[in-house]
Design a protein that fits this description.
Elements (H helix, E strand, L loop, with lengths): L2 H14 E5 L5 E8 L5 E7 L7 E4 L3 E2 L2 E6 L22 E6 L5 E2 L12 E4 L5 E2 L12 E3 L6 E2 L12 E4 L5 E2 L12 E4 L6 E4 L2 E4 L4 E4 L6 E4 L6 E2 L10 E5 L6 E2 L12 E3 L6 E2 L11 E4 L5 E2 L12 E4 L5 E2 L11 E4 L6 H8 L3 E3 L6 E2 L7 E3 L2 E7 L5 E7 L8 E7 L4 E6 L9 E6 L1
Length: 438
Amino acid sequence: MNSKTKAKKAARIFLGFLLLAAPAAVQAQFSYTPNADGVTATITGYAYGPGSVGPVNIPSETNGLTVVSIGDGAFANLPPPGLLDPPGPDYYPTSATIPGSVTNIGASAFLYCPSLTNVTMAYGVLSIGADAFSQCSSLAGVTLPANLTSIGEGAFSYCPSLAGVTIPAGVTNIGLIPFVDCTNMQAINVDPTNLFYSSVDGVLFDSDQSTLLEYPGGRSGGYAIPGSVTSTGEYAFFDCPNLTSVTIPGSVTNLGDYAFGFCASLTNATIPNSITSIPYYGFYWSGLTSIIIPSSVTNIVGQAFQFCFNLHSVYFRGNAPAVGGWSFFNDTNATAYYLPGTTGWGAFSTNSGLPTAFWLLPNPLILNNGSSLGVQSNGFAFTISWATNVSVVVEACTNLANPVWTALQTNALTGGSFNFSDPQWTNFPGRYYRIRTL
């Protein structure tokens, strides 16, 4: 290679990398690509090495080009050429300062930078890409700029040191699970003037609190979902290791997939009659010890309760729901308890792998589901359920204000249930029923 060729090669290398001096004599090298407009550039790479550790200041200009973007994966955990294994933490930046000229931080831009402790973004940043800061295990502080409009899916996911964040007023789009598995997160706050999102006691919601989007992963104790909520987003409570109980109000009609997956301390969950389906991975690997499934639930989707090792009792108030594959896989201590008079339990046991048994209640009850309830061709009918052969008496009255109860029929609950029918119900303007034991 002659001297002229060497000089040209040296010039290309110099133009392809920007060398910046950082504190404590730390130096960081960046590669960049000129954008099509000829006046702006995108940071596309980082020269890893033992000298790379330390604070990193992204430049606002390089070689006459304005730096407007940090490219996809620019600082991601990519080992230097020739290394078979990823390098140790001393190869990575400890902090990053992003100037006002940058408007976009690309997807996975800082994915798994294990030494990154804080990020400072200037006012110019408008969007943060998917997984941009995911798996930055030391990231404890981040201030989102006021001009920010978009936060990508999983942007700050799996950052166990991140304790809190505030969503600026201008954010109009937040991707799925932006802070999932941030197991020290205490609050996800939203600027009160934001028109698209809101927060209540540090929990992230949509603007009118009808959808609960994400619960802070580091919170401890129980939580009652507000009555304004009609649905929970996918992964809404995913991997909240210190959540111990949750009460779901009757306003909620939909639970998102993975809603309570990996909630290891979640021992108690109250499911209302408004829910018709338990979602995919809904309580996967949670700490549930028992659960009551309301009669409204007709479907339990695959893997909903898989690997709930502490689960011993699943109580069903209605007929057996359809059950997807692996819904109760490896729940070796669990038994499904059902009310006498309900149906479908043979197929349920076969499909779920759970043994079944009668649900022993202290008192008899009238089932409020099934085809036997209500007006029939031969009278008004209902099913009495009680897992015992003790007899019960059906009584009726016509006025609850001043009731005079009349015994209609005494029934032995053979097999734990009895179908009662009143052929005389049309002879009264109104009739009320009750049951009692002998």
